[in-house]
Structures are given as structure tokens and as C-alpha cells.
Amino acid sequence: MVLAGLFVFKIFKRLDQDWYRCRALAESVKTSTWRFSMRAHPFEDTSSIEVPKTNFRNLLKDILQTNRHIAANLETSVTEQVTGSMIEIRKLPLNQRMDYYVRNRIDNQQAWYSKKSTASKAALSFWVVATIVLYIIAAIALNAEQLGLPSATLAFDPLIVIVTSALGWLQMKRHGELMASYNLTAHEIGILLGDLEAVKTEDEFSDLINEAELAFSREHTQWVARRDAN
């Protein structure tokens, strides 16, 4: 009864969708912040810092408008959206910005995606093995009477329910799909590190930043897709 009540509450509140929206919103703001701090398109350097700052604020407005259901519940901030740290990082020369981006963004994302790929692989293996074992036990329970264990047949129906639940959980969590996606992104990030060595100009760095942020946004795009599917 309690579980049924919790399920109804979840459906009513759609908390899972709110979580996906929040993560997507946070990642959109984060990737825009990195682009601004690195002087990447559409926040290239100009004669006045007010131009990219205005572009950044306008982009934030668009992001919030797209996610207005969540944005309406955010705490109101009285501080400037473009922080002093963002400006200071933006002022760094090209080589220092490149080093900063590698240390604080690329390395961080590569470690995160590699860790998530490993975790998804382990979860997939666990649930596949668990489902197979449960199937075998259910088959034994079904034929328990022939094996001289008539009372064991009573376990068949509960086992079938458990097996079905395990299959549903495996399908819902999409461990195999996520493992492949995380692994692909981790390899793409490794390639980006190699490409970074050839960067010599601001335009080349801007192109690399946008390529990297596009790769990093793969997971946040999946969050949106999962939100819409649920």
C-alpha cells in the first residue's frame, strides 16, 4: 500500500522529469560559462567586454525561457551573472587559458565519463547475471515436483515476478546504451587532447572549445531525451 502511494505521488509530481530538467539546465549554463571564459564563439574577444557579456546574458535568458518550468522555482540572485572569476580567466593569454581548460574541464570530464562507463558496464553485467540466475531458479521451481521437492513449486510465481521486474529495471536503466555512450565520449575527449597540441590561434582554440563542449553535452542531451520519454 505504501509503495503504491509512493508510485502515485511520483507520477503526480513527476519528480524524475524535474530532475532531468534541472540537470539539463545546469549543464547548459555550465557549457555557456566555459565558452565565455575561454573567449569561444559566440563570445569572441571584442573592443569592449560589454559585447560578449551582453551576448552571455541574452543566451542565459534563452536557456531560462526554454526551461521556464524549472527556472520559475530557482532562487533569485542579485549578483552579476558574469562573475569576476570569469572575467579574470578570460583575460589570461591563450596558452594559460588552454592549460586552465585542460586541467579544469577536459581532464575532469574525461575522468567522469570513464568512471560512468565503468560503472554502467558493472551494472549491466550484474543485472544480466542476476536475471539469468533467477531464470534458472524459476525453472527449477517449476519442475520441483518432478525433482522430489513439491513445496518448492510455490516459489515459482514470486520468482517470475522478480525476473520480470529485473528485466524491466534493466530495460529502464539502459546500462548498455549508457556504457557505449560514456565510453565513446571518453575516447572523443582523448582525441581532443591530441588536437589541442596543434592549436596556435584564438580561432583554432574557439573551434576546439565548441567541439569539446558539444561532446560534453552528449549526456545532458540524453537527460532531455529521457525526460521526454518518461
From TrEMBL:
Residues 8-97, 101-223 form the SMODS and SLOG-associating 2TM effector domain. The chain crosses the membrane at residues 122-142, 148-170. Keywords: Membrane, Transmembrane, Transmembrane helix. The keyword Cytoplasm does not apply. The keyword RNA-binding does not apply. Pfam families: SLATT_1, SLATT_3. InterPro entries: SLATT_1 (IPR040884), SLATT_3 (IPR041116). This is Anthranilate synthase component I. It comes from Sagittula stellata (strain ATCC 700073 / DSM 11524 / E-37).
